Amino acid sequence: MSTATVALQDKETPAATMVEMCSVRLGKMLFGVPITHILEIVGSTRPQPVPLAPAFVGGLIHYRGDVLTTVSLRQLLDLPLLEQPQDLLVLESSGGCFGLLVDSVGEVLTVSAADHEPNPSILDERRRALFDGAYKLKDGLLILLDPEKLDPMRLSAVLA
Amino acid sequence: MDDLTREFLIESQEGLDRMERCLTDLEERPQDAELIAEIFRAVHTIKGTTGFLGFKRLETLAHAGENLLGLLREGKLIAGHEMITGLLQLLDGLRSILKTIETENAEGDDNDAALISRLKELQIPVQAVPPPVQTEAPVKAESPAQAETKKRTHDTAGSRSASTPRAAKAVQSTVSAPASSGASVSAAPAPVLAAPAPALVQPVAPVPSTSPEPKTPAAAQSGASQPRVQATAAESTLRVDVAVLNRMMNLVGELVLTRNQILQATAADPHMTMLSRRLDMVTADLRESVMKARMQPVSNIFGKIPRIVRDLSQSLGRRVRLQVEGQDTELDKSLLEAIKDPLTHAVRNSLDHGIEPPEEREAAGKNPEGILKLRAAQEGSHVIVEVTDDGAGIDVKKVVKKAIERGLITASRLAQLGEREQMQLIFLPGLSTSDVVTNVSGRGVGMDVVRTNVERIGGKVEIDSRFGKGTTLRMRIPLTLAIIPALIVRSLKQSFALPQGALSELVHISASQAATAIEWIENVPLYRLRGKLLPLVFLDRLLLPGVEHKAASERDNFIAVLDADGRRFGLVVDGLADPEEIVVKPLSAVLKDIGLFSGATVLGNADLALILDPGAIAMRSGVALSEEEAVHNTEKENESGVAAASSIEYLLVEADGRKAAVPLHDVLRIEQLPFQRIEYVGCRPVLNFDGCLLPIEDSGGVLSTAQGNSQAQIIVVVCREGKRHVGIAVSHVLDVAAGSDLFDAGTTQQSSGVTLLKDRVTGVVDLSNVAPLPAAEQAQPEWSQMGETVA
Fold it and tell me: For the segment A31-45, what is each residue's pLDDT rounded down to a tens digit?
């Protein structure tokens, strides 16, 4: 862990390395997705469920002529599913595009890399595989999500 | 890389592809001057352009090849086996340099000296000593283009004088052929000349003194006329980046989706109907054109095969004759690419495992020369590509034994499979019947690759083999990748798309009938379809196992009777929606792994639907392909083939309560239009249709019935009759039926237009009886009669 902090400090030497994060709500939790990875935000969607699909798949969505597989963050974190439509982030990862279903999308926050800390060691293994540390905000924590780690292909490999 | 170089690369590669095809043909017809001229042109063009672009290494090699080919073209040498091998080496050499240029934008600095000296050796006819002129000639070249031709004639003249006295004639004919490429070489660097060691000289048979002479001028002539033909072809064609075509295809796909949505949204609005129909037609036409633009003949990939066969049969010690059929069958470019590897694999397999060595074949009482047959043909919405050999065949018992040995299948599962299905086990990864792994095949990977590649593009692959007799590998490739007709079915409150290719019929079983109509053997549901038991698969139970589902007797049931390559079963769904032309969108790998869905699509109502894969559903549910069914299927195919050949299809229409039939072949369109659109020329009803006047046949009295009701809509069947079009007014369009069905209904007589009036049963409308415009009304009693009624 100490090496990780050192590495981070190295990066942030030019005093203010600011990152823009799209804040996302899921229940009471606040997550952040780097806006550089977001292609589009689609409000209130109802994805088409896919029978026999892995549990984390939230269904299919029609996005600009393509059919995207969505990942349900609630399913991933074993939270109860909601009845109401969810917001969707269209994310880009090295494996292609996919959707991330969240309760609601909030404003874009500018956070300082100095406020980032890696995952705490007491976090369970599954969440450690999904989260990428957290930013300390004035009024709470912003959990960093890395689109690469949420790619459905990778998830099916990790969670299998 | 600049555009010029890129274009040069593309053109050269095409030229070399042609050259490769010609070379393998040349081996069979060594005297064919056309082929030699074609090969010469390919090399010559490369040489010409390359000097211009400054690729010295390429130029030197091409030049050496050209010298040799020049002799061939003049008929001084004949294309023996050694010669072909040498030329193929030249081809490979040129290709590898082109490849290097493509990747590194430079020629690389490998040495071609060995190859060039080999080509030099081949120039020496059997008894000749290397003439000194030959080595000097290239060095002495003075001026571009012209000198190029002169030089060639010069050096051939030199060598010619050493061998045969007919040199002068041959030389003249060469001179008459202009050096086609204007940008030809100036002083060509002297090819590196390793003095040919006499022991290495491969004797080439001397020119037979009779045959080549008349051919030589022909070669020269074709050499001169061909470029002109190509020039005109070049003007009417255009090189288009495949990426652009792909993009166009995607956009057309989007347009089809939007059209579907518009059609659904406007269905209720009569004002929009005409517009949306028009959109519908234009979209369909556009789609067809774009698809056509992407079509390429299979000869593009078949062309590579002769070379493979040649090389492999040599290294494996086989004697093989290649037969190719259906070269001009066309297939989507991307699909063509996708079957290239499977085809090569199949050919390799046939040569390595199929066709036996000549001695073995003779011992088995076969012709020592094996036959490898490639066939491509279009069957409906599929293209069939077959690789057939008359070799040893596959021993099913061996396949089965291996499969069990490797633990690829359990004995109990195996017992359920018929022989033909057992044969398909050969496609399982890791299964090879070969006891030895050779560098050609035998690793058990090939067949798996064949299947995966073909299935990836929505195709099917199967193998038929008779032990000792031969093997056929059959690939069924869909014509298009992207758009297929499908029936939309409902289950689990969701829509699913069922490709119509597999659908043979639909059966509706209401809740009240379900208890008796669906029979059970323990927990296996069955339905008696015309006296035969049809295994049923409930879609909801398949997709959501472990949940209580409504019993069949508590809901409506629709059985979609599917035939997934000989596996016949009924898929039970809760509801049916309209058939739609769907645009197939690929699924992400995660969802593809489920195995039951071949893609997803967006429906007209903007809903998403998963596309069901009937074959996979059959496999998952354990529906087997029984021997009996297989036989039944082939019978059915034969029958339908016969039926298609002997009968025509008819459009059944109803006019004023009477039925009539119009040959479907003649029907161009069916138009629904307001009655006001009908106008009269004298007393003849006509329709202004797309700017031309269409005489309307109304022996059914539909128009007179509609008369007076200004809101009335009438239906006009627009038909083709000879060179003109005629319309038939009808009240309903009923169905399409085959002619034989009509005979069943007891109407064997060809009837005329009038019979519509007096015939009770279905009569065939005789279109030629519809009077031409302007009509002599008096001459047509039925029309004058009509006129009175209308007036």
Answer: 999 999 999 898 888
Q: Which residues neighbour B508 within 8 Å (Cβ) at sequence distance 6 or greater?
A: B556, B557, B558, B559
Question: Which has more pLDDT, A102 or B459?
Answer: A102
- CA separation, residue B352 to residues B399, B419, B562 (Å): 17, 24, 37
Name the nearest CA neighbour of B215 among B35, B23, B14, B397. Answer: B35
A68 contacts on B by Cβ (under 8 Å): 588
CB B507 within 8 A of CB B558: yes
> What ipTM was predicted for this assembly?
0.82
Mean local confidence (pLDDT), B574-583: 85
Q: Hey, are the CB atoms on A67 and B586 less than 8 Å from each other?
A: yes
- Put simply, the answer to whether A65 touches B589 (Cβ < 8 Å) is no
Instruction: Return d(Cα B317, Cα B730) in angstroms, integer.
Output: 70
Range scoring the smallest mean pLDDT among B133-137, B517-521, B579-583, B599-603? B133-137
Query: pLDDT tens-digit profile of B228-253?
Result: 444 455 567 788 887 888 788 778 87
Nearest chain A residue to B495 by CA: give it. Answer: A48
Residue B16 and residue B8: Cα distance in Å, rounded? Answer: 12
Contact: A152, B590; criterion CB under 8 Å: yes
Which pLDDT value is given to residue A30? 92
d(CA B680, CA B640): 45
Q: Please name the residues in contact with A136: beta carbons below 8 A apart, sequence gap of 6 or more.
A: A115, A116, A117
Q: How far apart are CA B142 and CA B138, in angstroms?
A: 9
Output Rg (C-alpha) for chain B, integer angstroms: 34
